[in-house]
Design goal:
Length: 124
């Protein structure tokens, strides 16, 4: 499923209250390692992220998951994204479409995005 995708935009919903959270997550992490003996360059390695179990960065949501367990929450992948900019764009687009900051039906506390048009030209 991951293929050459960067990550995804998702919604996680509390089955008991119906309250949701919209966020994004990348499939891989890049770690920087110290240079090997005798070398000057730092090394980079790519590892799979915790995307399978990730529930979000929102503190309230994480506390609820810790208190009630992951089984109470369902996650739905809304869109697979090929680049970081694409993931940021669609996360913000959906957050604005659902008025997550104005609705009590969402856990989202902020919308942070900075995207350059040139990074999205492949979507036209």
């Amino acid at each position: 499923m991951i293929g050459d995708h960067y990550g995804f935009v998702y919604s996680i919903r509390d089955r008991d209250t119906g309250k949701r959270y919209i966020g994004k997550k990348c499939f891989r992490n890049t770690k920087t390692l110290p240079p090997l003996k005798g070398q000057k360059r730092k090394r980079r390695t790519i590892t799979e992220s915790d995307w399978r179990d990730y529930v979000g960065s929102n503190g309230t949501l994480k506390a609820l998951v810790e208190k009630y367990g992951r089984e109470r929450f369902e996650r739905e992948i809304l869109r697979l994204c090929r680049t970081a900019s694409e993931a940021s764009y669609f996360e913000a687009k959906l957050q604005f479409e659902f008025d997550v900051l104005l609705s009590d039906d969402f856990h989202n506390d902020q919308i942070m995005v900075r995207i350059n048009r040139s990074h999205l030209k492949h979507l036209k």
